[in-house]
Structure formats: structure tokens, C-alpha cells
Amino acid sequence: MVNDLINIFIPHIILILTIIVQLVLGILKPYSLTFKYKDINIRISNIVTVIGIIGATAGTLYSQGDYAGFNYSIIVTSDVKALSILVLICGLVSVFLNTNLLRGNRQGCYKYHVLVLTALLGGICALGANDFLTLFISLECMSFALYFLIAFPKGYPSKEAGFKYLITNAVSVAFFLFGVSYILGLTSSLNFTEITQIFESERCSIIYAIASIMIFIGLGMKLALFPFANWIIDVYAGSESSVLNLLSTVPKIVVTGVLIRLLSGVMGFNTEINAVILILGLITALWANIYAIKENNVKKLLACSSAANAAYMIIILAVFSSFAASAAVFYLICYVFMNMGAFAYVNMIEPECKLLTLDKLSQTDSKLNAAAFALCCLGLAGLPATSGFIGKIFLLYSLLQSGLILLPIVLLLLILFTIGLYFYIKLARGIIKTKQTAIHHHYKILNSFSRPVLLLMALITVIIGILPFNLLARCILLFQ
Amino acid sequence: MLNNIGIYHYLVLGLILFLTGLCGVVISKNIIKILISIEFMLTAVNINFTTFGLYCKNLAFDGYIFALFYIAAGAVELAIALYIFYAMYREKQTSNIEDYGDV
Amino acid sequence: MFDFSNILSLPVLVFLPLVFGIIILMPFFPNNDILIRRFAKGCIIFHFIYALLFWIFYNNGFISLYAPDWIKTLGISFGFAMDELALVFTLLTTIVFTLAGIASKLHIRHGQRYYYALLLFFETTILGIFNASDIFTFFLFWELELIPAYFLIAYWGEGGNAKKSAMKFILYTFLGSLFMLSGLILLHYFNFLATNTLNGQIGLYNLDKVSPELQVLISVLLLIGFGVKLPIVPIHTWLPDAHTDAATPISMILAGILLKTGAYAIIRFNLQTLPEGFKYIAPVLAVFALINIIYTALVAYAQTDIKRIVAYSSISNMGLILLGICSMNIIGLSGAVFHSVAHGLITAGLFAVCGIVLLRCRERNINKLGGIAAKMPRLFGFATVIILASIGLPSLAGFVGEVISITGALASELNDYTKFTALFALPVLILSSCYMLKFLHKGFFGEEGECKPAADIANHEFVILVSIVVLLFILGCFPASILDIIQNISVTNGAVVW
Amino acid sequence: MSEFFTDNLIWVILYPLWVFLLIGTGRLFAVRMSKKLLTLITLTGSGLGILFSGGALINILQSGSKEFVFTFIKIQNFLIQLGVNIDKLSAVYLLLLFTISFFIQLYSSSYMSREPKYYRYFGYLNLFNFAMGLLLVSPNLFQIYIGWELVGLVSYLLIGFQYTNPLKSTAAVKAFIINRIGDTALLTGILCIIYIMWTYSVSEFVTLDFSDFNIISSIVYAHTNNFTFTILCLLLFTGVIVKSAQFPFHTWLQEAMKAPTPVSALIHSATMVAAGVFLTIRLLPLLTLSKEILIFIVILGMFTALFCSLCAICQNNVKSVLAYSTSANLGLMIAAVGFGNIDLAVIYLIVHGFIKAALFLSYGMTNNEYTDDTGTTLPPSFIIASFALAGLAFAGLNCKELFFETFKQNTFLRIEFLLTAFMCAVYIFKLCCKYPLAKGKRPHAREQISVWVFLLIITAGTFAVYGSQLGFPFWTAFAGALTAIIISIKAKECKEGKITQICSEGFFIDKFYSRYIYSCYGKITDIANKIELYISNNKFLVSFVKAAVFIAGNIEKYILDAAVNLCAICTKFASRELEHAQTRNIQTYIAYGVLIAGIIFTAILLTYALVINSLGGIG
Fold it and tell me: How far apart are CA D309 and CA A116, in angstroms?
């Protein structure tokens, strides 16, 4: 029993240990006196975090079999593991991109690491949660870390962004919990398994529908779904790219995982929720794509892209089947890598420009970097030879599979894709030097890791785009 | 008189508090007031939880525990909010929410 | 004896240009414009010769299938296969790309390295469309082609609005292809429901058990995608802009081949895979084809930009091809394929002529041109032959295609209206001569315009025009050369069976 | 021996094509052969043509027609064959074609000697011979269509030969497009026949061979109703109308006058216009099946004859008058075919061909492209040919006699013919009187040879035509009187030299005539002239097409393109509105959220309420 427990909680434990190590190192500063090299504390804390995350990933891979513990409040199955690994990878990539951020705050760099690790810990706990209480605590854990992370960089914009995220999150959490409280009232339980059993046998009431929708709204905020979607533009515009890298991936993965679980049981017994998901998803996608058309700020464009892609993913979940769930996860994986590639590029050119507009995108000294960024953008648009293309096929396939009733929605989606292509093309062609932007900036890339990250992400995007079958088969296996 | 107070009274009170909080968040211009309104919503949820904790017989003590956790979480949240607000305030010297829209 | 068919591999055929393109992009490749150009030209010509081998060693029923698994979950493979239809279009593609590659010499002044790499990439995508044996492989290339096409139009365009036109093109086509994708998915899914096998091979679809209404629905969805490319009239407005603003070699490719992918796809999918559903649509589509033919011919007459005239004439001619397809019989099909080839060459030639005129005169308004014939007699000679071919003069390729397509529609067994559309399509012969002769008359005849061309055509342009004219004569006088290849397609019950 | 000519006629017909290609490729590669060599090669072709077609004619008269075909297009039961079919008709036509073109080429070699585009010109002449030869030997309708188009093309190229002149190139385009209308109608007709044959014929392939055209006609007639059949015949016949320059499509012939004079001679005698009569004769098995069609043909021919004669009278330009005269005479021929008198039509075609060629070439001897009306002079040979055209002497006289005989069943037609013939004399002599005889300038020997050979042939034809038996020579008597009058006027004119007076007074001494009848006649010509102006500008057709083009262009620009742009604009507008809505104030965002959430909850509550209502309340 205890062995099992440890077996399952290796990643959590490793993360917590890393947090402790970071705190100790940060507070005691054992090396700052002996070394003159001023980046040393950044380097060491980075290495510790990387080791921690890799350890956690290895631990997740190492743990065998499914498990449910703590009175069924946490369960660990293969899909949880898969998504946890994805979360950890995203965290790892964000750590690689943090140099620009930490150079501004050398002494406080351990705080950053503690926050990142906390967010990851919260994320993987939430993925495994089988209980509303655990879910709530884990999500809050992640959110609190994210507030600080967003507000972490020096300067006013990050503070404002953090504050906006906080307010919106607080309101949405209130919605979520209000819904949870009604579920509690209806079922006298907070455990997903018990709730599912109760609703399977009982006739569902309007209170149940409203409670599910409130829960969905509360969780949807983290994906930037309507009703709480507008924050994403402002928050992205005010944040630093390595934080955005985390913000645009980890909560998405976590919430998608949680939603898949909730929709397959707790919330899945009323038809209203499906309609609401579809409508909210479509509204969000429509809003994000149309908003992006006139936008000129790269970060805001990526915010729109983030919102739109999350919406597509959620639309898949509206037709809940095992195929749809695996399609959504596949789409999520594809999206995460392309997105991280794009943010890696932004990370590369960010320090030079206060306001990153489209015409500044071409300011890189390597054409390969630019091409990799363009590839990621085209991938986000769903053009072929990238993973986004396969993701798009599966998205449409899972929608059409559920019958021809959804055909009008599919057609609307097609138009949204097309509108989206417009701004992705704008992003992609931003890399090409035109006469106006031909002023060469030969500067040194501050962060030596962003280039490998960018190229790696582009490579993954292409590899998934060309040889998707292995990953796909695994995704399908997750939900069988 | 007091014996007539049932579960629905508590729930309606919770709902009213929740809506009040929501209105407060949307309407107040002062950031402190907004934070207080968020606390209103928190309290509304807590009322719900404790009510269900009280009235659902076969429930162990889930409702109360949830309320406890939520109180703790709310406190943390408020603390973070105040911290960030203070950082912002140093920049702008105002507590009007409308002045914090520069990004 | 060495068996040549051993070296004929479809993946090599498709991906060879891409490999060449990547070589050009490699850092070790010398950054010398002349070298890059010659290398690219050499690659394209080499590839053309390779494609010719396929034709030479082609024998009946030669289907080279290469289909490793791609997305196993859905039974999709990354498959290539070549049959008669694909062979004809592959040859056309390599020919037009060779011509366009040669024509690029004077038109492309900057960014040659990227230009030629993209051009070669473009060739790969189009060959992929024609040779794909699996619906999703087909779709992959169909969408992939947008990327090189967009950048080629936008960044090497001649018109001032190149970026805008390219954006219009890519959005239009992308939306169309998404509609097509939904059609393909439904096709795949309903085939699965009907036969209980997950199958991606185009040739193996069997929708006999699927109700005609569903087939019609799938057909319509597919047609929206193909119709944007073809283009069919209400959704054609991207074409004139894109063709006008693109650089001349790109215009040649767009009009010469890109539009043919639409025709090819309709034959492949609507006719071959969904004959039952297409039966209901074909008469309606024939009316659209008629509108294409007549309406765009009239619009072409109203244009003053030489490239726009040619662009609209392309739409009009594509209408004829569509009409041939809609007849749903072997004659119309042969006509459509033949006219695809003929028109591919003609329109490439016309754009080449436009390009030469643009280069020499720096003027594209037909009212300001004039008197080119006196200054450039050789260009005039070629231009006359190509224009005559485009208005369907006997002994040149255009005539055969037009007559066979229309005859096919006339022989259609669908219903009487299709026959009438065939008869009403005939006045296009008059209209096409109106706008094309306007081109000749105003551009070449008359007194000298405001611009004075400096010299007659250069040697490489001469090569392009001579090869087009010779091919047009050969096809016009000996149409059997292509028709025989298509002969193997047999028709039963109004449906084409391979 | 004469078999040899028939068998190898194909090479003679292809020979001009090779010459054309030789010239064309030579020009492209900037290789030049000398002008003399070129002329020699060309003339050899035509000379051989005369020899072979003459030989073939003799052979065919002895042993019947020859046919040789090969497959051009074959798809299932759709078969198009090309080949050579030589029968009496085509042999005669070929002989005419090669004879006339031989001398016209000879003439051109001096006429065009100073032309820089001499090579191109001779290339086109060769192509013309080939195209016409292809048409004449066609074994089936389809090849006729091919020849038909090619002939139209060459005429286009030749009319627009001086392309630097915008007037001429415009004329070429006009002529070509009008021709194209006829071609399209013909093709439509051909395809209709193919379709009908497919449906009803028992044979596997439909080849539309002339050798079994009788059967085809009967099948077509049997399986179409009266209306369809009439439409079908009309479609086919429209091709004839256009090519033979019949009303209302005769205007292209006027445009064709912009071509160099020898080309006009060629077009008017043995090539373009002759093709129409040829096709009518070929189609006769089909056309005879419907009486209405035959009547229509006769009426159209006669009407064109009358109408174009009237128009000719109004003209002052020599070439214009000759062009109208061609239409008029072709009208007579067509009417003759409609009457079933094929021999007459062919004979008159030959005679008229030589006369017209002689007239044009004579005109060309003393005038060139740039001569205007005031500078025109006419050589004596023109006057001689005029007599033939007017039917006052030579073969023309005999032919008119034959026509008079043919029309004897119908008095009305006879009168109309008389009128036409009379007007023919009027306009041609008006020219002779109006313009002075050429003096001083001595034409080149080659030009003179050509003209005099034609005149010789016409003279010889006088005796050749006297083959058929004739009744009382009405026309000869009438013509004799007319000759007397003409000669007297000519004498008067020569004496007084008052050309203008003669024109105004006409040819009649009688003042009564000039006062009353002439004014009446003048009104008729005026009306004809107005109609002619209307048609020649193609006002109706052009305005129709222009309107269509205008409408289509505007639909394209303001509806289709605008719709797409409107989508873009709407999206951009929406985008701007959304940008405004993005106030950067967090409260607004939450307010949006609350609003949307409120809407959703209200909607759900309402749905529930409605569902519960429809279920009749809870429980």
C-alpha cells in the first residue's frame, strides 16, 4: 500500500523536494560569496529545477499501473500520466526560456523556480484529482503560482497583467465553486466516482444543468473561453514570453484533462452542457479570430491563437466519445508544441523591442529561426506537413463522425479556420524582411537556449505532421 | 419563527450574496471595493457549503472542510491581490480600477 | 536487358523537386544567382525527362502503387499511384514547370535562391496531388500547395497588390479545401459504415450502399473545394487577381496547372468515386459550366489589363472542361482531359506572351499598347498561333478539346438539358474570338503605342514559345497521342470505372 | 495515266501548307530565301494544282469519284475522319481554285514586289490554297468545318495584312468575327446531326460522309419534327449565308476590301465566297427534304441579289461596288442551287470568278491601296470585264440567259432577276463612266498577263457555256438593246467628258425617266442604303454584345467581387468593433462575462420552463 503510494507520488514528491531545495538555496545563498561570476545563481537554480522536472518526468514514466488513493480522491491512470508528462515538458521548456526574465532579478531567481515548480505540482495534482476538493486545491495552487509568475517581471505591465488574471480567476473560481456547492447539495458527495454513480441512476434536474454549466464556466476561464475570455489579450500583452509559454500551455493541458474527466462522468448527464460547450466554443473562436484580424501586436495575436485553439479543442469535447477525447488530446499535444515554438521565437527577439509588433518579427540574424517560427505559425493555422494539419483532420473527423447534425457547426468552423489563416499568414510572413524592416539588427541572442528550443519544437511539429501514427495510436489507446 | 428557516432560505441568501458580489465586482470603481466584492462571492459559496454540510445527513463533513479550505484559499488570494495591487499602486498612486488599463 | 521500369518510382517522381529545392537552400550551396538559376533549371529539366520515362514505359494498366501506412487508426496510407489520368496530368505539370522555370530568367530579379526552392517545392506539391492514391495524401498535397503558391505570388508578384491578391487566393482556396476536407471525411466515414473497412485508397471506395442523398451531400462539399480551384463562377474572384498580380512564370503555372488540379479532382472523386451522387449534380453543374463559359467570356471582353483578359479566358475554358466532365461519358471525359492539357499549354503560352510584352513595354493596359507586331515580328508570330489555338482554330490543340468536350456533353445520357447546355456553350467560339482578337488587335496591331519595345524575344523565350507552339500543333493534328492514353478508361452505366 | 493525278492530288493540296511552314520557320529562324525562289515555289504549287486537278477531273469523268480517309479522333463511337474525296464537283472547284490562284500569285509577284512583308504575304496565299483545297476535297462535313475555319483565318490574316493601319486591322477583326458566327452555327448544326445519328443510326460510327449523305439526310428527316429540322437546316445554312456573304451577313465582304487588291480578287472569285455555294451543293440532299428551306434559300438568294445591287448603286468606291456585286451574284447562285440547278450555279460560279478576278486585277493595275476615289483610274481591261459582268458580252451573257431560263416557272422571280441584272449593268457602268481611263502608267507585264488570261477564259467560256438548249433568247435580245444604249452613252461621255452629268442622269436619254422613275428609284436605294448602314455597323449585334459585356463586367466588379470584398470589410469592421470592446479595463471584461453567463442561464431556464410547460407541469 505504502509502496504503491510512493510509487505513484514519485513525481509529486520530487517536485516538492526540488521546491525545498530551491528555497534552501535561495535563502542561504551558499555560493554567492565564493564566485565572482554573476550569473551563477541563475545557472545553479536552473540546473536544480531542470533536474527536478526531469526526475519527476522519469518518475511518472517509471510508475506502473493505475492507482486510486486517499479515499479515491486521487487516481492515476494512463491518460493522467500522459498529460502530466506533457505538463512537465512544458514547464521544462519554460525554464529553458527564462534567462531574459531572470537577468532582471538575479537575487530573486529562486522565487521564480519555486513558483514554476508549484504551478507544475498544482497542475499534475489537478490532473489526477478525483474529488472536487482536491481539484479545487490543486487548481488554486497552480493559479496562485501563475499570478505571481505573471507579475514577476520588473515593470508595471506585468503587475497589471497579473492583477487582471487574478481578478478574473477569482470571479471564475467563485462560479466554479458555486456550481460545486449545488452538486454537493444534490449528491451529498464531492467524489467524482460517487457523483457519477448517483447521476447515473437519478433523473437530472435543472439545478444539475446549471451547476454543471457554472463549473464549466469556472474552468473555461483558464482556457480563455467565454464568458471569461477577454482577459487573455491584456494578460498576454503584459507578460513575458517564458511566463506566457507556461501560461498558454500548462493550464490548458490541465483543464482539458479535467474537463475530459468531468464530462465523461460528473457533468456528462445533461444535454444542455453539450450545447453550451458548443456555443461558448464557437463564440470564443469567432471572437478570437475576428479580433486578431486588425491586431498588430504579436503577443496579442498569439493570445488570440491561444484562445481560438482552446476553443476548437473544447468544441471537440462537445461531442463526447472516446474518439473525440483522443482527438482533443492529440490536438492539444500538437498545439502545445507549436505554441512553444512560437513563444521561443518571441523570447528570442523580445528583449530588443518594448512593443513587439509584426514588422519587428523579421529582426533575427538567422533565417532558419525565422523559418522555424513561420512553420509553427502555419502549423497553428492547420496547414499541412505540420502537426496542426493532422490535428485539424481529427478535429473535423470527430465532429462529423457524430452525425450530420453538426454539419452546420463544422461549416462555421471552417470559416473560422479561414479567418484564422489570415492572421497566421500575417505572422508567418512577418519573418520576411521587406524594405521597411530591412534595417539589420545584428545583436547577440541573449538566451542561448531559445534557438534550440525553437528548432526542436519546429522539428517536433513537422515530425508529428509527417509521421503522426505512433502518437495518434497512443492517444487513442488512452481513452479506450 | 426561527424554526421556519430551512435550507432554501440559506441557499437564497447564498445566491443573493453571490449576485451582490458579482454586481460589486462589475460596478465598483475602487479596487479595494472590488476585492471586498470578491470576498462576498466567497462568502456566498461558503454559506452554500456549510448549508449543505448542515442539511445533508449522510454527508461526513465535506461541506465544512470545503468551506475551511476555501476560507484559507480566499485569504491567500486576497493577500496576493493586495501584494500585486500595492506594486501597481506605487506606479500610479490611485485605487481607481479604470486607471489600470495601460497594457 | 536492363528494365527501365525499375527506376521509375512514384515517391521519387513526387519528391525529387523537393530534394533539389532543399539542396538549393542548403548553406553550402554557393550564393551565386546565375548558378542557382542554372541548377534549378537543370533540375526541372531533369525531372521532366524522368517524367517522360514514365510515359515511355507506360503500358496498359501500369499502376505503380506505393502505400506505406500513414494514419493507421483510420486506415490511411501515404499512398501514391499512377494511372492514365495521372500520367497525362503529370506530363503536363512537368512540361509547364519546365517552361516556367525557363521563363523565370528575366522575371525574377531578387531572392532567386528562395524563389527557385519554392518553385521546386510547388512542383512537388502539384505532382503529389496528381499521383496521390489516398484521399488524405491527396488532401495533404492539396493544402501544402497553398504555401509555396502564396509566397510565390506575394513576394515575386508583378502587380502592386500582389500581397493582397495572394491573401485572397490563399483564404479562398483554404476555405474551399476545408469544405472539401469535410466531404472527404464524410466519404471516408460513410464508406466505413457501409463496408466496415477503414480505407483511404481512392480506388477502393464503394458507396453503393450509401444513399444517393448522402452522396449528393458529399459531392457538393467536395465540389465547393474543387470549384474554388477550377474555378466555378460565383467562387472564382480570386483567380483574376492572383493571375494578374503574380509574376509571369507563376501565372503560367497557376493557370496552366493549378486550375487543372480542380478538374482532375472532380474526375477523380465526383466522377470516379461518387458516380451515383454526381448523377444528380451533373446537370446542375453543367449549367454552372455554361455560366462559366459565357459569363467570363463576356467579362474578359470588358477587361483592359492583358493578363486579366487571359485570366478570364482561363475561367471560360475551364468551364468547357467542366462541361465535358459533367457529361459523365467517355467522350466528355476525354474532351475534358484533352482540353486540360491543351488549355494548360495555351494559357501558359499566353501568359508567357503577356510576360514578354510586360518586360519589354512596361505596360499592361491594352489601350496603351499597340504596334508590337511591327517591332517584334517573331513574338507576333508566336502570339498569333497561341491566340488562334485559344480561340479554337482547327489544327491546333484548343479546337480538338473544345469539340470533344462539347460533343461529350451532347452525347450525355443524363438528361436533355445537358444537351442543350452543350449547344448553348458553342457561342463561346464567337466570344472567345472577340476578346482574344481584341488582345491581338489592340496589343499587336495598329500604330505604335506609348511604349516602345526595345528588342524582339530573347533566346530562352524563343525556346518556350517554340515548344508550346510545336506541342499545340502536334496535339491539334494528332490528338490520338493523348486520346489513346485515356482510351483505357471504360464507361459503364454512366459511371467511370477504372 | 490520269489515275495518277487523282491518287496524288493530296500531295498537291498539302504542298502549299509545306510552303507556308517553310516560309514560317524560315522567318522565325531569320533564314531568308530569295523572293524569286519563293515566287517560283509558290507558282509551282499552283501550276501543279492546275495540272493535277485537270487530270483528276478527266479521270473522274471517266471512272467516278475517289475517296481516301484516315482517323483523326476516335473515342468509342465518336469518330472523326479526315481524308480526300474527289468527285466531279470538287475537281471542278479545285481546277478553278488553282487556275485563279496561279494567276493571282503571278500578278502578286509584281504587285507586291515592293512590300517588305512579301514573304508573309506569299505564305498566307499558300495557306489560303491549302485551306480551300482541304475544304474542297473533304469527304465529310467535319473536314469542311475545319477548312471553313482555316479559310476564315487566312482571310483574317490577309485583310489585316497591313496591320499597322488600325482601320485595316479593325476590319480584319470584324470580318473574322462575322465569319466566326457562321462557323459556330455550322458547327452547331454538325454536332446536332452527329447527335441525331448517334441516337438513331444503326451503324456503329457516325462519320457524316458525303458518300452516304442521302441516308443521313433521310434518317435526320425521319427522326426530327418539322420545327427541329428547319432549325437544323437553318443552322447549317447560316454557315453558308456568312461565308457567301448573303444578307444580313454580307457586310464582312466590305471589310474584306481592306485587303490588298489581289487578295480581294482571290476572296471574291475562287475561295471564301465560293465555299458557301460548295457547301450548299453538298448539303442539298438534306435541304431538299424540306420545301420551306428550299424556298427560303431561293428567296434569300434573290433578296440578297436585289438588295446588294441597290447598295452597289449607292457606292462610288470601285472596290465597294465590286464587293456588293459579289454578294448579289452569289445570291443568284444560291438561288440557282435552291432551284435545283446545280450546273448553272457551278458554271456561273466559274464565270463570275474569272470576271471578278479580272475586274479586281484590272483595278489593281492602275490603282494601289492608297488611291482614293478622286485619283482612281480604270484600265481598258476593266471596261471589257464590266461588259461580261453586266451580262452584255462573253460568258456573262450566256449565263444570264441560263438564269433567265431557270426562273421561267416563276414570273415574279424572273422580273426580279431582270431587275437585278439590269442594276448590275447600272452600277458597273456607273463606275466605268465615273472614272477616267488610265493613261500614262503602264502596268507590269505579269499583271497584264494575268488579267488578259482571265479575260481570254471568259471569252472562251462564251462558247463553252453554250451546251444546254435554250428557248427564245430573251435576255440576249434585252442585252442587245442595253448594249446599244450603253455604247451610245459611252460615246456621248467620251465626247463630252461630263462624268457627273452622266451619273446624275443615269443611262437613259429619256427625261421622263430621270424625272419620275429615277426619283422613285432613288428613294428605294436610299432606304436600302440606310438598312445597309445599320447592318454594316452591326448595330444590333454589337450593341447587344456590348450591353452583355457591360452587364457582365459590372456584375463581376460590383456584385461578385464586391461580395467577397464586403465579407472582408465586414470582418474587418467586426474586428475593429471588437477592438473597441476590448477596453483594457478588467471590469468590462467581467461585465461581458456576467452578461453572457446571464444570457446562457436565462436561456436554459426558459428552455426548461417551456419543456415543463409542454409536459404539463412537474410530475
Answer: 102
